[in-house]
Amino acid sequence: MAVPAHHIVATPPPFDVPPYPAGIFAGQVVLVTGGGSGMGLAMARAFAQGGADVAVMGRSLDRAREGAAQIAALGVRTHAMSCDVRLPEAVAAAFDEAEAALGPVGLLANNAGANFPVLAEDISPNAWSAVTRIAIDGTFLCSAEYARRHIAAGEGGAIVNNSAQYIWTGFPGDAHSAAAKTAQATMTRKMAADWAPHGIRVNAVAAGFFPHATSNAGQREGGIEELQAMIPAGRTGSIWEFGWLAAMTCTPLFGAMTGQVIVQDGGESLRRSLIMPDYVPPRERADGPWGWK
Amino acid sequence: MKRVEMSGWLAGKRARIEGDSPAIAAAFEAAGATLVGGEADIWVHIAPPPKVKAAHELTHAEWRASLDAGLDRRFLGARDFAASCRARGQGGAVLFVGAPEQALGADQAAAAGALGNLTKTLGVEWARDGIRVNSILTRETGDTLGHLAAYLASDYAAYVTGAVVGIALDD
After folding, report:
1. A166 is a catalytic site residue
2. Total of domains in chain B
3. B117 inside 8 A of chain A by CB
4. Helix (H) or strand (E) holding B40
5. H or E stretch including B164?
6. Is position B171 within any domain?
7. Residue B109 maps to a domain
């Protein structure tokens, strides 16, 4: 069902009108994990719009390179590299590589993650480890590596984590990601406290549904049209408005903000009424929206 | 810190600010909003922080005053604002600003807790009127408060509604 014509849908400015001046990150390098595609690429492009040079980290070097090319088109320097964020030595080496190529990493965006709808009973130990450790261990290892370098140099900084709108409610049919994304949000608050004395700010955006080429529902036959109407805001998110908010938390505009988890989901996670469609267990709705057949 | 522009976040918007926050008023004007006393596209309500008293030392009159300013006035004001938006056939933005839930006394804990869930409720209830509802609960009063308020009131936050945001670590 489409959003009725008499409903009013709030929309953001277009991509080429960012909310901050082009030079707000000038002279700074941002490292974006999982920055080659999807939401990481949206973060990277938002930082680039503010003039940051971008180190694009991905599991796949090819995908990181493809993303880096799109980011470079915005007029900044980029460096693409491959890294498994679950391995501390690999993370340290990637920071070295980024700094050799572009200079000291001044800002960090943790986006690396994997996610796919699956019944809890069908999550193999390998799949559980992959999804939870990329997000949980990866965010920890990259953030701690970043913080050690900044503390040693006596310099403050800013980290932004990509969390998700389902972190406070659970996400039946997506148990690994439900656990992983909440860990990112709760570690955000504690790391912010740990590193506040060193001037390092840590915030997160709990993002709703921002369709992109590699999102699960982005591949739906018939596109995302039918998904717009289920969200209170009357639309799915435009991926650049997610990138902007993530980058904005790292600007001096929000210079006093730390330890915050900002929900940006068009009200999706809050939707509730006394009368709702009958409850259907995940294993009986494999063909519906968010299904996996 | 270098001065950063807000790139006309609120250009062409009329904002009515109820309550006192020099940082928010300054940021809204810097972001291009026109501050008005009547019909508006944005309604901001800032509640003054109640005095800190142990619950058993609060009179009912003190309790009621905190809840009036921290909750009732906000609901009634938002309700009127939303009605005027609907009458014009236009969307709008509501922003509640106040102290964090556990920062002061039990009166504030009650008011801010109620306000947080009211924010989440109205954000969804009025979503298809194009009216967004958000809260900032913080003890911060400086530039970041002003900038965050301007951001949440602007179209850049078009996908942020029902959000309760803080600024400092213990917010």
Report:
1. yes
2. 1
3. no
4. none
5. strand B164-165
6. no
7. yes
Q: What is the CATH number of the domain that holds A113?
A: 3.40.50.720
Collapsed DSSP state (helix, strand, coil) of residue A100: helix
Query: Which residues 84-113 of chain B have a CB within 8 Å of chain A?
Result: 89-91
Q: Quick check: is B170 in a domain?
A: no
A264 → chain B, closest CA residue: B160
Q: H or E element: which one contains A204?
A: strand A200-207
Chain A residues inside the 8 Å CB shell of B10: none
Q: How many residues does chain B have?
A: 171
With beta carbons less than 8 A apart as the criterion, state whether A10 and B91 touch: yes
Cβ count within 10 A of residue B155: 19
Q: What is the pLDDT along chain A (293 residues), one digit of tens a residue?
A: 789 999 999 999 999 999 999 999 999 999 999 999 999 999 999 999 999 999 999 999 999 999 999 999 999 999 999 999 999 999 999 999 999 999 999 999 999 998 888 899 999 999 999 999 999 999 999 999 999 999 999 999 999 999 999 999 999 899 999 999 999 999 999 999 999 999 999 999 999 999 987 665 545 555 667 788 989 999 999 999 999 999 999 999 999 999 999 999 999 999 988 888 888 888 887 766 556 55
Distance CA A141, CA B139 (A): 32
Largest CA distance in chain A: 58
ipTM confidence? 0.91
**CB-CB neighbors (< 8 A) of A271 in chain B:** 124
B45/A contact by beta carbon, under 8 A: no
**B55 lies within 8 A of chain A by CB:** no
Sort out which chain A residues have CB atoms less than 8 A from B140's CB and list them. Answer: 256
Kind plus residue range of the DSSP H or E element containing B97: strand B92-98
Rounded to a whole number of angstroms, the distance from the CA of B100 to the nearest CA of chain A is: 13
pLDDT at B136 over 90: yes
